[in-house]
Design goal:
It is built from 17 helices and two strands. Its main location: membrane.
């Protein structure tokens, strides 16, 4: 995508320069609230004119525009998400003159944070379609995807402006210094001098402004977009998270030529049949890393077994994978693993989200093992172990709750009244 295509995506009146009277309206909360409502209604009604609702369905985007909180009503509406996602999934979507991409572009450039949440909720679908078409086998015949790239550049440029040329740093704990949680094994300097220096790690280097999505800059732009999604993931609907997990599973690749060449049974072990009786489903059992092979251990097709993964014996197979296998540099994999970690371990996530993330993490583990990527192997193995422990703890608590309820419902014999003898 070049700059000429991006110039076609000009912000609408909703995202133009604020009027000089903005200072007076900002001082009036009621006026500001009403302008936000009016802006959200205008954006939703403009989208309604672009989409054709199912005549059989009683759902209409106009009903969301008439609510007290139009943007949040749209964000929490599965029907609205389905309607727009089906239109975006069209084979002709994502081109330069695509009106839906223009709508997403203008909506994200608006100053309303709730409208931006709507655009971010469709980011997994947009990235899935975009990356799948870029890396598909018949990519030579793929039409222009300037529309998708314009939305990604809008999100990226907003983050560049927010970071103001500064890197994202993280403080690395110094284990040689005592804390509330540990006492260092090594003795401190008897003279009382502190020779340790705070260790700082660079989580993300400073971002450079981009006017086009070049192949060399695509991983950085996609990674920044995923990071923006992660910042708002607590407000994302569950169906958007499930969409992300399904595309992550497909990006890892289910038809890897070396999928049966992983470390054998000593690295991971998946129970056959209906899963381990203790676990109630298929799970990767962590073992100590070893390069040795045991004659009694058989190499297993990890990726194929993960396609039949049943979480906690629910007996349902996951739906068909979306997307295709794509390159996963660390710029994309790092924010993707953070997102999957939230989907996997977030206490408020639904079980569908956790199950979809569980499959994605295991597929990424197989991919990392095939690519011999130490960072990917370490991160995915850790998530797998945390997932196993969380499910075991949930099962124990559920069993304890059932036992306590059964004990409460069990009738007990009436106690005889106690008789106390009092001496006079």
């Amino acid at each position: 995508m070049d700059l000429n295509n991006l110039n076609n995506y000009s912000p609408s009146s909703s995202s133009s320069t604020p009027h000089p009277s903005i200072a007076t309206t900002a001082a009036d909360p009621m006026q500001s609230w009403w302008e936000s409502i009016s802006k959200a209604r205008a954006r939703i009604l403009s989208l309604s004119s672009l989409l054709h609702s199912d005549p059989v369905s009683s759902f209409s985007l106009s009903s969301l525009a008439d609510s007290d909180r139009p943007a949040l009503s749209f964000l929490s509406s599965f029907d609205a998400y389905t309607l727009l996602s089906s239109a975006l999934s069209s084979s002709t979507s994502g081109s330069g003159p695509d009106p839906l991409c223009q709508w997403l572009y203008d909506t994200y450039l608006s100053s309303d944070p709730h409208l931006r949440l709507i655009v971010l909720s469709f980011l997994p679908l947009l990235l899935g379609l975009y990356l799948s078409r870029i890396h598909s086998s018949d990519s030579a015949s793929t039409p222009s995807l300037a529309g998708f790239e314009a939305v990604l550049l809008a999100i990226y440029s907003s983050e560049v402006k927010s970071r103001a040329g500064k890197p994202v740093l993280v403080q690395i704990p110094d284990l040689s210094q005592p804390s509330l949680y540990h006492t260092p094994r090594n003795k401190q300097n008897p003279h009382g001098f502190d020779n340790s220096r705070p260790s700082v790690g660079v989580l993300s280097p400073p971002l450079e402004p981009q006017i086009a999505v070049k192949s060399t800059k695509r991983p950085v732009i996609v990674g920044v977009a995923l990071d923006c999604y992660f910042k708002q993931i607590s407000q994302m609907p569950s169906w958007s998270k499930v969409e992300l997990c399904k595309y992550a599973s497909a990006w890892a690749g289910q038809d890897c030529a070396c999928k049966d060449k992983l470390d054998g049974g000593r690295e991971v072990e998946i129970q056959n049949g209906h899963g381990n009786e203790n676990n109630g489903g298929y799970f990767l059992e962590g073992r100590s890393l070893s390069n040795g092979h045991d004659n009694n251990e058989r190499e297993i097709d990890v990726v194929e077994e993960m396609e039949k993964l049943e979480i906690e014996g629910n007996g349902t197979e996951h739906s068909e994978l979306k997307g295709v296998r794509i390159p996963l540099p660390w710029e994309i994999l790092q924010p993707l693993l953070r997102l999957l970690g939230h989907c996997l371990l977030g206490p408020l996530n639904s079980q569908d989200v956790k199950d979809a993330a569980s499959v994605a993490v295991r597929r990424l583990y197989a991919r990392g093992s095939h690519d011999l990527a130490p960072q990917a192997i370490l991160a995915t193995r850790s998530l797998i172990q945390l997932d196993k422990r969380a499910r075991e703890a949930a099962k124990v608590s559920a069993t304890a709750a059932v036992n306590s309820s059964s004990n409460a419902n069990t009738p007990s014999k009436a106690k005889k009244p106690e008789i106390f003898l009092v001496s006079k």
